[in-house]
Amino acid sequence: MAKNLILWLIIAAVLVTVMNNFSSTKEPDTLNYSQFLDLVENRQVERVTVDGYIITGRERSGESFKTVRPAIQDNGLIGDLLDNDVIIEGKQPEQQSIWTQLLIASFPILIIIAIFMFFMRQMQGGGGGRGGPMSFGKSKARMLTEDQVKTTFADVAGCDEAKEDVQELVEFLRDPGKFQRLGGHIPRGVLMVGQPGTGKTLLAKAVAGEAKVPFFTISGSDFVEMFVGVGASRVRDMFEQAKKHAPCIIFIDEIDAVGRHRGSGMGGGHDEREQTLNQLLVEMDGFEPNDGIIVIAATNRPDVLDPALLRPGRFDRQVVVGLPDIRGREQILKVHMRKVPLGDDVKPSLIARGTPGFSGADLANLVNEASLFAARANKRLVEMGEFEMAKDKIMMGAERKSMVMSEKEKLNTAYHESGHAIVGRLVPEHDPVYKVTIIPRGRALGVTMFLPEEDRYSLSKRALTSQICSLFGGRIAEEMTLGFDGVTTGASNDIMRATQLAKNMVTKWGLSEKLGPLQYAEEEDQGYLGRSGGGGLSGVSGETAKQIDEEVRRIIDECYGTARRLLDENRDKLDMMAEALMKYETIDTQQIDDIMAGRAPREPKDWQGDGKSGPGAIVTSDEGGDSKLDEASKGAGPIGGPAGEH
């Protein structure tokens, strides 16, 4: 901006100088015709130049003048000039060539044509970029050359099986003859299925980086526009570009935006999407071969894709990119920690055990948050304490240090969280208590965090009922200390989760002895991996619906009674834990072990004695674990304390 300003100032100075030079030239005096005739009669004119009606000349005194001859016949002027010894000069009229006259006549038309062509070029995406208003039929795929794709398989961790599946693509792109000699051919397309953040796009870029081929990337939503036929045109244009750069890879992210089941809707927009899908089907496996073009697509909704898209010859292979297990998380952490200066106490294996259910993107965010914590503290190394604080921030929410709570509200929150922790500790097959805090985090006034001990991919009926018991522990603790009329709205989320677990046990998982192993719930939309859609009862009679309600009520009542009995039997431990929370604000497994053993809890490590705990107070060395149980695991994990909504 500064350079442009200086340039314009220089240009302005030059123009001013030139104008001053022109203006400094003395202009001849302009006389009327009568004054000119008087000068001639008085013999004061030395010479004149006649140019049509314009007469310029010089007086004998050296002064220049100019006058305009009237448009009347004045035959005596020449004689008067000669009689008074005036030198007469004439000016030959300028003769323009035919080409000059033609150019002058056609110049405005040429200007109009040039302006029109300029705007048309801009509208069609010319002039150094794509995407003009008239370029809606062009593909929006962005091509990355082999020099731009630096990602390799060394940058991908935590999904060894998926890497093995796609390594064949690299071998084919490098040496296709190896497969063709044996009559085999590489899959035309590979569909990567997995939850968000598991590394589908990263894996596709690694394939392109290893194979050293061009990489086209586009989103499924980029195909469909408001204009009919645009999507199909963009598909054709994309494959035409790919053929020019074959062998290459086309990566379509979120392909479910364009690859849904055909015939599942009505209207122009639906018809346009179907045309786009049809063109994609033809390009992937039609009459024209697309040798050397491999299509890789990613989605977290594989169930909504059209069967014709998934058949062999199009997407021959489906690669499931799931959430990493404890070993995979450790590998991912090591990849992201390469550029981070770490302290000697940082152990990726311990962090991996304490981050169950984290995706690759979550772990990358964890490392970044830890680096930010260390930077705020002006540290030169990122230590284990920063990683623990980052994990707590991600799993439980950021601390709301500015929030001021009354002592009564604090005490109520302490009893609420203590109820969750004690019941969760005493019921069978429940995840261990990781941490309890009454520091407001996110939208909750307090949080009780449970972490599993080992990899588990299913839950038993006993484990589910134990989760329901621990969810009711907070409300029961409030009722025991404040009375029924003093119970707060803080347990609203706990009640909702407990009720949903009980409903699923009866209507989806067949865990009711009375109703048996039948599924009564119908999922409205469970296509998103990592997310369960809400479902209602379908095809159920009124009598059966009544029995379902009765079974849900029975499970809730039994779990509520179990939690109440456990807290009544351990009232002393409830009071002791609430007192410890009021003093330390955050307690972990060591303090909880002391309380459950009937001992006074030890002080948290690095406790500052002012009601605040340092980062070292967080202990996970022996209590980490791993689990990803889809919707069944929703009863585990962080349980919020009293708040309006959490």
Short synopsis of the structure:
With about 650 residues, this protein is α/β, with parallel strands linked by helices.
Characterise this structure.
This protein folds into four domains: 68 residues, Signal recognition particle alu RNA binding heterodimer, srp9/1, CATH 3.30.720.210; 169 residues, 3-Layer(aba) Sandwich (Rossmann fold), CATH 3.40.50.300; 71 residues, Helicase, Ruva Protein, domain 3, CATH 1.10.8; 170 residues, Methane Monooxygenase Hydroxylase, Chain G, domain 1, CATH 1.20.58.760. 45% of the residues lie in helices and 11% in strands. The chain is built from 20 helices and 17 strands. It has a six-stranded mixed β-sheet. The protein has a five-stranded mixed β-sheet with strand order 1-4-3-2-5, covered by helices on one side. Strand 9, helix 9 and strand 10 form a beta-alpha-beta unit. Helix 16 packs across helix 18. The C terminus is likely disordered.
